[in-house]
Amino acid sequence: MCRWIAYSGEPIFLEELIAKPENSLLTQSLHAREAKMETNGDGFGFGWYAHRDEPGHFREVMPAWNDENLRSLSRQIRSPMFFSHIRASTGTSTNRSNCHPFVQGRWMFMHNGQIGSYPIVLRRMESLIPDNLYCERIGTTDSEALFLAAYGHGLDDDPFGAVCATIDDILDIMDDAKISEPLRFTAAFADGSDIYAFRYSSDEFAPSLYHSKEDDCLLIVSEPLDEGKHDWQTVPPGHAIIGNGKEGAPLIKEMTLRPRGGN
After folding, report:
1. What is the rounded distance in angstroms from the CA atom of residue 8 to the CA atom of residue 13?
2. What letter would DSSP give residue 98?
3. In b/e form, how buried is each residue of 6-44, taking b as 16+ CB within 10 angstroms?
4. CA angle at 102 for the pair 98 and 107, rounded to the nearest 5°
5. What is the C-alpha to C-alpha distance for residues 29 and 88, in angstroms, rounded to an integer?
6. Which residue has the higher pLDDT, 140 or 245?
7. Quick check: 237 and 230 in contact, CB under 8 A?
8. What pLDDT score does 157 carry?
9. Where are the beta strands (DSSP E) in the chain?
10. Does pTM top 0.90 for this prediction?
11. Helix ranges (DSSP H) in 32-91
12. Overall average pLDDT of the 141-156 stretch
């Protein structure tokens, strides 16, 4: 399973979270503590907001621990809101277009988890992407398809509602196909103003998610970056955390999904 971090607050250099902490994202790329797979070596990426509405992003197929560009760029790029992600593939190929984060307009997205039996539901899953957005799909991951489907569901107008509606649609497709494997979805969206992070699984094993709010900074992570330095709080399964670090405590909100018979 992948590992990721999302930050919003006072501008900092990316290396402050990607490389410097005792359990930094670089450390997790080799020795993740709370993932099914300890090593996350199927590429990496980061995206950041700076002087334009849309984010910049950089993605590479090299393992994060073995790419000097990551260390160099993270020392030079300073941002008030950024994502970084290290990938452990769940079956799709290791190429740049399959690395996270994904960007569409002002939105940025990254994901840890998977859609159970994805090859079986791939065609119906892609049917959730509106025609005008389908040409923006350049990779083959379930994550990118889910992102574009959520964008088409009204991410600009109601981010929380759009994501919940997309998860509902995917669960319906899985139910119709009699898929027994779970949908696991620990993911983050950002629009340059707020971060929306979700922790959900259709079984009892939702991938881990933590947050820390201190001063004017919000940090959301797959697993804690340190012990004792930050006050890490667990995001409950089936909930989202919404905030930007500057406007008080983040909102913890229960995901609103349709009832499912027999589940």
Report:
1. 12
2. G
3. bbbbeeebbbebbbebebbbbbbbeebebbeeeebbbbb
4. 170
5. 9
6. 140
7. no
8. 96
9. 3-13, 44-49, 56-60, 78-86, 102-104, 107-115, 183-190, 195-201, 210-214, 217-221, 233-234, 239-243, 251-254
10. yes
11. 68-76
12. 96
Q: What φ, ψ does residue 143 adopt, rounded to 5°?
A: -60, -50
- Domain 3-116+186-254 is in which class? alpha beta
| Mode of pairing for the β-strands spanning 56-60 and 44-49 | antiparallel
pLDDT at 40 over 70: no
> What percent of the chain is helix, strand and coil (3-state, nearest 5)?
25, 30, 45
Return the sign of the alpha-carbon dihedral for residues 171, 139, 94, 122. Answer: positive
Query: Taking all residues of the chain, what is their mean pLDDT, rounded to a whole number?
Result: 93
Cα separation, 215 vs 20, in Å, equals: 20
pLDDT band at 244 (very low <50, low <70, confident <90, very high): very high
Neighbours of 127 (CB within 10 A): 13
| Rounded distance between C-alpha atoms, residue 29 and residue 49, angstroms | 24
- pLDDT value at position 33? 74
Query: With left for phi above 0 and alpha for psi between -120 and 50, is residue 31 left, alpha or beta?
Result: beta
| Rounded distance between C-alpha atoms, residue 118 and residue 21, angstroms | 35
- Six-digit token string for 259: 């009832």
Using one digit for the tens of pLDDT, what is the confidence trace for 66-89?
A: 888 999 999 999 999 999 999 877
Q: Give the pLDDT of residue 34.
A: 67
Radius of gyration of the chain (CA): 17
3-state secondary structure of 143: helix
pLDDT given for residue 263 in this prediction: 44
